[in-house]
Design a protein that fits this description.
Length: 210
């Protein structure tokens, strides 16, 4: 994938900010529209359970499904609430493929950069990560699951991108700094910085969040 030049990067960031308003929560392809935590869990029932019991329930439920899931401690998702877009690098057999991650409420939509460049606002989501904060205050956890277009993104690749969300939006200011540069100083953003952080963290397509 051809990386964006500096001037195009700045233009692209402005475009993605406008994209958030256009997309909203519209369902597309095989994705579920307005997928709430209540559609997955009986929220009244889990109020009586401990955080560790909910972790077990959540992971057990999704272990039998062809998708990914995670229970993330609140301390590990310090910057997710800022809902800022970012550029992610997915390791491939030869080099990296870049994906744009764009928030729409609790949904994080991933679209390959080449699709955004060629299709603009019509570029479809290829992966959606759902981050549920319903139990954040009482149980101290954020529940995550995903839906993906299996023609373009495998479960292992979805896991790699999900791991990167924790890497860049977690509690480490050093890595979140790249997100800030991407959004507020786009002329200074370098896509190779994403790859450098990714390689240093040893996050790969087969890494699993537990």
């Amino acid at each position: 994938t051809e990386p964006l030049g500096r001037s195009r990067q700045a233009e692209f960031v402005k475009y993605m900010e406008k994209e958030l308003d256009k997309r909203g929560k519209a369902g597309a392809g095989g994705f579920t529209k307005d997928k709430t935590l209540g559609s997955i869990l009986n929220l009244d029932m889990v109020q009586e359970k401990s955080g560790s019991e909910i972790v077990e329930l959540w992971m057990q439920y999704f272990s039998k499904k062809d998708t990914i899931s995670a229970v993330i401690p609140v301390s590990s998702v310090l910057y997710i609430s800022l809902l800022t877009p970012f550029l992610y690098a997915l390791p491939q057999k030869e080099g990296y493929e870049f994906f744009v991650g764009q928030w729409a409420g609790h949904e994080l939509h991933f679209t390959s950069l080449i699709n955004v460049q060629t299709m603009g606002e019509n570029a479809p989501s290829q992966l959606i990560l759902y981050h549920y904060t319903d139990l954040q205050k009482d149980k101290g956890i954020v529940l995550m699951t995903a839906e993906m277009d299996s023609k373009f993104v495998t479960v292992h690749q979805a896991q790699c991108l999900a791991n990167q969300v924790q890497l860049f939006y977690g509690s480490q200011l050093e890595t979140f700094r790249l997100v800030e540069i991407f959004n507020h100083q786009p002329a200074e953003f370098k896509h190779m910085s994403v790859i450098a952080e990714l390689e240093q963290s040893d996050i790969g397509p087969a890494v699993t969040i537990k």
